[in-house]
Write a structure and sequence with these properties.
Length: about 400
């Protein structure tokens, strides 16, 4: 009888409370708006270019410069705020994010919009460094995969509803209205987080003198390099998916919007696949994901000849992209020292955004010097190189750790 009572008490201790669930929902909503904002220029690329009288490749620099700003600022900004209590930091970031969105909407010219986007990038740099470690700390250890999946699901829902809805608003009301809507929604999320998020103390400041501990860890370095390659490959094609679908696949505006929604929706499927299978089959899971990424990019141009084929390919592409992202976040949190998870994630965020910036630049160069139809082939070649690095280096390091 006493043993049964002990089991019942133990089971109660590992249940997820309603407050924890509501807090995770708030963080997922924040992830939704941050992810929507990061990629919204992709869905509005043609309109922004036309409004400011610039080429699509130059408008694409809004994505590249944003990503490079995150890459450069993630680590120094995270070191600067590493001692702050996490609730206050999250609420402050969301408020600043909202203000910069409203400034983006009011930008009188191309360079003013660029400056406002750099301001958004500053908030982004810290947000993605802390949101996953914060979500993990809100719940018992056994719910860590669930917490990570909830955050990634928030990002994926941004691709389902945020990016397409922002695109629809931009098409019918103007791209500035899209940024205003994001700003207003961010203010509402800020208020929600203020009310529901519990205080989570910092684990102490992280000294730059401890960085060699992270940067000499072979597994972490391998994950960072793999991240750079895959993100670069992904965004070589994805940054120009809107004009590609219109010009090469000959889709209507509504068709492009529906395809982008499906792309994001399958990200949720990728998150669910991670939560079900990654714990048991980590290396096999990542092998399939990386092969899927390379195949989706390489087959993008041939699939454009038949609309159902390119739609299905984009669906698979969205699934493997999300599965890759959440898998590597899990590995970084698992293999980093406890007092360094936020800094490790800031490095991951910086490198991922370096990949975004480089991929967007490479894709723009392919559009300029080859044709927009070639972006999938170029991205596929980079993805194959990343897969080779995975098999040669990172997979073996995970195997050595019994993963």
């Amino acid at each position: 009888m006493q043993n049964q009572q002990k089991v019942q008490v133990a089971s109660c201790k590992v249940r997820l409370s309603w407050r924890d669930r509501l807090a995770l929902v708030g963080l997922a909503c924040a992830a939704f708006i941050f992810n929507t904002s990061e990629f919204i220029p992709i869905g509005l690329l043609s309109d922004i270019a036309r409004d400011f009288g610039v080429t699509e490749a130059r408008a694409g620099l809004l994505i590249s410069v944003y990503a490079w700003a995150v890459m450069l600022l993630s680590l120094p900004l995270m070191l600067l705020v590493s001692r702050m209590e996490l609730k206050r930091l999250m609420v402050g970031l969301t408020l600043l994010f909202a203000l910069f969105q409203l400034l983006s909407a009011a930008a009188p010219g191309y360079y003013a919009l660029m400056l406002a986007r750099i301001g958004v990038a500053c908030t982004h740099a810290v947000f993605w460094s802390i949101v996953s470690p914060l979500a993990v700390r809100l719940v018992p250890d056994r719910f860590r995969p669930l917490a990570l999946s909830v955050i990634v699901t928030g990002s994926s829902v941004a691709m389902v509803f945020g990016l397409p809805l922002g695109r629809v608003i931009g098409l019918y009301v103007g791209w500035r209205a899209t940024f205003r809507c994001i700003g207003v929604f961010a203010l509402l999320v800020c208020l929600y987080l203020t009310c529901i998020l519990p205080k989570v103390p910092s684990r102490g400041g992280f000294s730059p003198r401890k960085l060699p501990v992270l940067l000499t860890n072979p597994l972490l370095v391998g994950i960072y390099l793999l991240t750079l390659g895959v993100a670069g490959a992904y965004f070589t094609g994805y940054s120009y998916i809107e004009p590609f679908l219109k010009q090469v696949a000959d889709m209507t505006d509504d068709g492009v919007t529906a395809t982008l929604m499906l792309f994001g929706g399958m990200g949720i499927a990728g998150s669910l696949a991670f939560s079900h299978w990654y714990g048991r089959y980590a290396r096999r899971f990542l092998t399939l994901v990386l092969l899927g990424m390379a195949a989706c990019l390489a087959l993008l141009r041939p699939a454009a000849e038949w609309m159902p084929a390119v739609v299905l390919l984009c669906a698979l592409w969205g699934m493997v992209a999300t599965a890759f992202n959440v898998s590597l976040q899990n590995e970084i949190i698992t293999h980093s020292p406890q007092d360094a998870t936020s800094v490790s994630m800031s490095i991951f965020s910086g490198i991922f955004n370096l990949g975004i910036g480089c991929g967007t630049w490479v894709g723009g160069a392919a559009c300029t010097h080859l044709s927009i139809a070639s972006v999938g082939y170029v991205g596929g070649a980079i993805a194959l190189a990343a897969f080779a690095f995975w098999r040669w280096r990172v997979s073996r390091l995970l195997a050595a750790k019994g993963m």
